[in-house]
Design goal:
about 0% strand, about 250 residues
Length: about 250
């Protein structure tokens, strides 16, 4: 019975917040509906944008950029992070470079990338790549280095090759750390693409948000923010689910 109540309790605060939003907006407590339109009006605008295809086209553009940039950045981060975590020479060679560039925010690269690659589809994709690459790399390196050396020693004693030890022992044990990086950056990729589209790209959810701002359409702005929040939540929960599926049977 308790397990059945938990999902309901999770939705209860959200429901209370939405009801309070509707009541406060319609009661005139705030300075007019321009400041905060009722939730029902926001949902009506969400429906209108969906039916007319405006929201769908913007969402598809942003989603494509996120998937390409996040996949490429994550794969590169896992590959380079695995090499650094497994080979000390590679780690010593690349660590100073990674330490130099890692603190730079992904959006801090916008002016330079605008000059290097121009204002086109590659700009937000490259920013998402950068946003995903460094944290995933860092978590991969950390996960591999934290693997108990006794497991590696036992595998070597049993005659396992270096490649088999890496892929059958080390990487599976490092998966929780790797998934932590993936889960955190899955949401950050959406924040990055929205910011990039707001600054330099004429299509996508971020561009729609900026057009709404120029027209002073608070309802459309809130719709865009809701889409952003939902997609961050979906992506983060997707990787949390994948982690449970892949490591739930053996992770302590």
């Amino acid at each position: 019975m308790e397990s059945k109540l938990k999902p309901a309790w999770g939705f209860l605060p959200v429901a209370i917040f939405l009801v309070a939003w509707e009541v406060v907006a319609r009661a005139g407590i705030l300075p007019g509906r321009f400041f905060l339109p009722p939730f029902s009006e926001v949902m009506a605008e969400f429906y209108r944008l969906t039916v007319t295809g405006v929201l769908g086209k913007s969402f598809a553009a942003s989603l494509g950029r996120v998937l390409i940039g996040f996949f490429a950045g994550s794969v590169a981060g896992i590959v380079v992070g695995t090499a650094m975590g497994w080979r000390r020479l590679i780690d010593k060679t690349l660590s100073p470079i990674i330490s130099l560039f890692y603190p730079i925010p992904a959006l801090g690269w916008i002016p330079l990338l605008m000059l290097w690659i121009g204002i086109n589809e590659m700009l937000p994709i490259t920013l998402i790549f950068i946003c995903s690459f460094f944290p995933v790399l860092y978590n991969t390196v950390t996960g591999i280095k934290q693997v108990d050396a006794d497991y590696i020693l036992v595998a070597r004693t049993l005659g396992a090759s270096e490649g088999r030890i890496l892929f059958a022992v080390v990487l599976p044990l490092a998966l929780p750390n790797i998934f932590t990086g993936l889960r955190l950056e899955a949401g950050m990729a959406w924040r990055t693409v929205i910011a990039a589209e707001m600054v330099a790209i004429p299509t996508g959810i971020g561009a729609l948000l900026m057009r709404a701002e120029s027209l002073m359409r608070i309802d459309i702005i809130i719709v865009c923010l809701i889409v952003l929040a939902v997609m961050c939540l979906v992506f983060e929960n997707l990787f949390a689910w994948l982690e449970r599926r892949l490591t739930g049977g053996w992770k302590s």
